[in-house]
Design a protein that fits this description.
This protein is an alpha/beta fold. It has one domain (2-6, 44-218): Glucose Oxidase, domain 1. Helices cover 14% and strands 26% of the residues. The strands form three sheets. Strands 1, 4, 5, 6, 8, 10, 11, 12 and 13 form a nine-stranded mixed β-sheet that branches. A two-stranded antiparallel ribbon has the order 2-3. A two-stranded parallel sheet has the order 7-9. The relative contact order is 0.24.
């Protein structure tokens, strides 16, 4: 069993480097207080997090609309690609075309950016996904409910207009494929394949995004 999500701290990168995670001690044993008590201030779109349809649609679903068993995935499809262009489309679809089994329930895409997360390029030159990837998935893989990846967002910072369209396509309330962004896929390889994934979002009422802990069971577990 491995983690597929990152710890949150003040160095956590965010999309466009616009937000920060701040933790502040309100009560501190080291300063003579009875107990430690910490408050945090942050965006919900930080670290490994899930985008809800409500992120781009006023009538879109939030965490209240998903049953507990929605978050357990027993048929993960893991795809590893090496990408040069900022927008992911052809190479991913080429790999997906090789897949004959259409019963998968979650797609995990590893680009290798997870190994460069502490560099500026992670948030400034991140890979994004073309909106057409959504159309391909809903036509061929009817059971996929979530797409997760090791880029900070489905939207490339260098092409934010296309990124907004990608968000709208994937989060379409009529047939959403939820976006699991900024995953830690450093331990994932084709030879160490995932056989089960549990996504555990923080359950915040009427919220557009939710930080998550994500757990993976490998073929060796």
């Amino acid at each position: 069993m491995i983690y597929l999500s990152y710890l949150l701290d003040e160095n956590t990168p965010t999309y466009g480097n616009r937000n920060k995670f701040v933790a502040e001690k309100k009560s501190d044993i080291a300063q003579g207080d009875i107990a430690n008590d910490t408050s945090i201030a942050t965006t919900v779109h930080i670290g490994t997090h899930i985008d809800m349809p409500y992120h781009f649609y006023e009538e879109g679903q939030t965490i209240e609309d998903f049953d507990a068993d929605f978050w357990l995935f027993t048929r993960p499809l893991f795809i590893e690609i090496r990408q040069n262009e900022p927008i992911i489309k052809e190479k991913l679809i080429e790999e997906l075309n090789k897949v004959n089994d259409i019963g998968y329930d979650i797609l995990i895409v590893k680009t290798g950016l997870c190994h460069e997360r502490q560099q500026e390029k992670y948030w400034k030159n991140n890979y994004g996904f073309h909106p057409d990837v959504y159309g391909y998935l809903v036509e061929k893989f009817l059971n996929i409910r979530v797409i997760g990846f090791d880029s900070i967002s489905v939207s490339s910072w260098s092409n934010r207009m296309l990124g907004r369209e990608a968000h709208k396509r994937f989060l379409n309330p009529l047939k959403p494929i939820l976006l699991l962004e900024d995953m830690d896929l450093r331990e994932c390889t084709k030879s160490n394949s995932l056989k089960k994934i549990l996504v555990a979002p923080i359950r915040i009422v009427q919220c557009d995004g939710l930080p998550c802990s994500v757990f993976g069971w490998t073929a060796n577990s």
